[in-house]
Design a protein that fits this description.
With about 180 residues, the protein is α+β, with helices and mostly antiparallel strands. The chain has two domains: about 50 residues, no CATH class; about 130 residues, 2-Layer Sandwich (Zincin-like). It has seven helices and four strands. It has a four-stranded mixed beta sheet. α1 packs across α2, α3 packs across α6 and α6 packs across α7. The longest helix has 17 residues. The radius of gyration is 20 Å and the shape is globular.
């Protein structure tokens, strides 16, 4: 009987981890909600490691993002509601950075204003040359729509490699015109 219960629990945990439930969260050492079943299942299957860490403040990234916002005149972005974090221990192989928006349902439920989080993945972002990092930050900022209400602009019409390159060249030109390239 115990073996059957354990097998059923393992099967349901595997289904849970496969994304059947909308409540699975990636466990981290610091922060974010960790669903107890998901966390227990990660421990059970040996997939939880202490290497997954989110640094809540990445002031170096925030400073660079602020400079990009000012230089490119992204006036629709409220820097007070754009937070920058650096994560370590990510298993994402092709992700350099990503942007997260607080969707409307979360905003209304929590009584919060629209907020965005720009996450850079340490294992990728921090080892790229500065030019590639700047292009990546511009790319992520382009995902924020003019309304700044928690939504996203998806890849396609607006967030394209051509538009990112145009934005990057404009950024370099404006930095040069403002004398910021000599700092």
């Amino acid at each position: 009987m115990v073996a059957m219960a354990a097998a059923a629990m393992t099967a349901s945990v595997d289904a849970f981890l496969a994304g059947v439930s909308p409540f699975s969260f990636k466990p981290t050492v610091i922060g974010w909600m960790i669903h107890p079943i998901s966390f227990s299942a990660e421990l059970l299957h040996g997939r939880y490691t202490n290497n997954s860490v989110i640094e809540y403040f990445a002031p170096d990234v925030k400073k660079r993002v602020q400079e990009i916002l000012d230089t490119l005149r992204f006036d629709h972005v409220d820097p007070e509601r754009l937070h920058c974090v650096r994560s370590r221990g990510s298993k994402a192989k092709n992700t350099i950075a990503r942007i997260h928006g607080l969707g409307r349902i979360w905003q209304e439920t929590l009584g919060m204003e629209p907020t965005y989080i720009l996450e850079v993945i340490h294992e990728q972002f921090d080892y790229y040359p500065r030019e590639a990092q700047d292009r990546t930050l511009i790319h992520e900022l382009m995902h924020i729509p003019q309304g700044f209400r928690g939504g996203f602009r998806h890849h396609g019409d607006h967030v394209t490699p051509e538009n990112v390159e145009t934005g990057y060249r404009r950024y370099l030109r404006r930095r040069r015109d403002l004398g910021l390239d000599k700092l």
